[in-house]
Amino acid sequence: MRKLVSVILTIVVSVGAMAFSAPVEAATLQSTAGVVSTSSGRLNVRSNSSTSASVIASLDKGSYVTLLSKSGSWWYVEYAKGQYGYCHADYIKTTAGTAATVKTQSGNLNVRSGAGTSYQIKDKLAKGETVVVLSTSNGWSRVLYHGTKTGYVSSQYLSQNGQAAISLNLPNYKQTDSRWANATLGNSGKTIAKSGCTTTAIAMIESYRTGTTIYPDAMAKKLSYTSSGDLYWPSDYQVVTQYSLSAIYDQLKQGKPVLFGAKTSAGRQHWVVINGYTGGDGFSASQFTVLDPGSNQRTTLQHLLNDYPVFYKYFYYK
């Protein structure tokens, strides 16, 4: 199955002539990355957190932007080097990214157009500047810097303190929703409301992965079940049987939600979608956010483990 990939489009920033009074706040180790997710056209950057505030810039759909802080329905963003404003949160999808500081011994750090010293130098970063690391491979990190620019730097010159927050924007389906609660799982006679937490969770993940709306009843028709209603796992999902929060975080950093299963001591299973991490040092179950098909009260992985204390396994799409 095709992996969800955020397509980076050329960023067009239209700066208005009017000055604005947003508080100046450089990127920090709490900064993270967002992708403009308008249905069409550009996203306005405003001088204040109001739709009546003046438009000071605009960002292309699909472009990256540095997120500094959130208040209500508004993100305070850096949209160009030293330029700040506000964007409505409904049109920004937070994505995997870890803030890091440039730690050269002296001089500047080269930003290149590709992952290697043979690629063209496109910018330079001063010692102490903060960037957001989007991905790392073979000693090179792809970074978001100066608000909306992306490029590659040598990973050895970056210092990461703590782990950045991640939030993947999935639909939140409940298996008891009347629109599909009575739909059956294959020929088992069991319903989504009764036994469909896994099917409902996969519907959330597949909706996110494909960028389409797939409801649990439609998902059930795409999956295969035993006569007792147990799911035959899709072949394009990777199973992991070892409990590791750092490994789960690594999947979230790649933009992949995690389908997580746990059991009671009596063996009763339940499945949720891990869709985010609240940030900080180290990893604990209380820092991972979940979408629970069977509950509105269980919003963290720790909530799930309080009720289902035995880890079973987890899955993510390949």
UniProtKB/TrEMBL annotation:
Domain (SH3b): residue spans on this chain: 31-96, 97-162
Coiled-coil regions listed in the entry: none
Keywords per UniProt: Signal
Keyword Signal on entry: yes
Signal peptide location: 1-26
Signal in keyword set: yes
Domain of life: Bacteria
Pfam families in alphabetical order: Peptidase_C39_2 (PF13529), SH3_3 (PF08239)
Protein name as it appears in the record: SH3 domain-containing protein
The species this protein was found in: Bianquea renquensis
